[in-house]
Amino acid sequence: MPPEPIVPEPVVEVTDLSVRFVRRDLDVRVVDGVSFSLRAGEVLCLLGESGSGKTVTLRALLRLLPPYARIAGGIRLAGRDVTSMSERQLEAIRGPVAAMVFQEPMTALDPVFTIGTQIAETVVSHEGVSFRDGRRRALELLELVQVPSAAARLDAYPHELSGGLRQRAMIALALCCRPALLLADEPTTALDATVQIQILLLLRQLQKELGMATLFVTHDIGVACEVADRVAVMYAGRFIETGPIETIIGRPAHPFTAGLLRSTVHETSRGAPLVPIPGGPPDLGNLPAGCSFRPRCARQIGPCGAERPALRPSSDGGGVRCFNPLPASEGVRVGREQATRRTQLPIR
User: Fold this and answer.
1) Tens of pLDDT, residues 34-61
2) Which of 7, 53, 142, 179 can pair with 147 through a Cys bridge, CB separation 3.0 to 4.6 Å?
3) Is residue 95 part of a domain?
């Protein structure tokens, strides 16, 4: 018999992760029982509305949360327990093990240091090389992320660069220590459409070339289609549907996922009216009884108001958290255009 294929260990393993924000008169659970794993070369996309807990989940992996945050559950990066690490130990893994591309390129870079200095100092700090070698590595990285006139940009300050170039510099900074895991927090949100496509192309190319595991946060279904292997749809701090991108887009089972698809503009349905999801995101400090999506859902049944649904596993390795999921035929009808139109952006 041929030997069984060797399955690589997960780069990140998250088990029953919960995050509470606790202040004088406030105790809010913003992430509630999230679990997932990610292996080298995989891209998992966290998809959902603003305020659903996507960014907090991402930042919790490196414990980049305010002092009033309380983290519970398990987080392991490259086999190391993040929850028990000291601040010095965390500093040692931020960069070489996991690195983050922050949401806002206009303010994430230090305005008083040049781009080259910021990248070079990070390399020097983690790899112990000379500043000259760090600067040489910075130039290589700027060229890798396709910054034009990279040598000249080394001595530019962030305010001297456009939004797209700042975002590329942020990506270069994140990659400077060759991380096993890249955390990308809506890296294209502040950019215009043309630059968004360029950054998505770049991230997808770099991810494939470097073999990184990537956790990508977005509220844009089109972006998820371009970058993701798997998707986890978040609502009120919980995963409500997970699975391969083709399943989530082509055969959505949760009413919220289907609502996201119906409220998105697509080239093949241009001119058709949008169908918004009724209501607004829930107040995390005052969630309704039972299913959090119940007040906005047209498919609610008796159990929906009495208890919180569990995540029911599916045959494709995903799952759905719903007492009355969409039947397969309706899910296919909702997602047909999205499944047949996963934009083929060329990798150059």
Assistant:
1) 999 999 999 999 999 989 999 999 999 9
2) 142
3) no
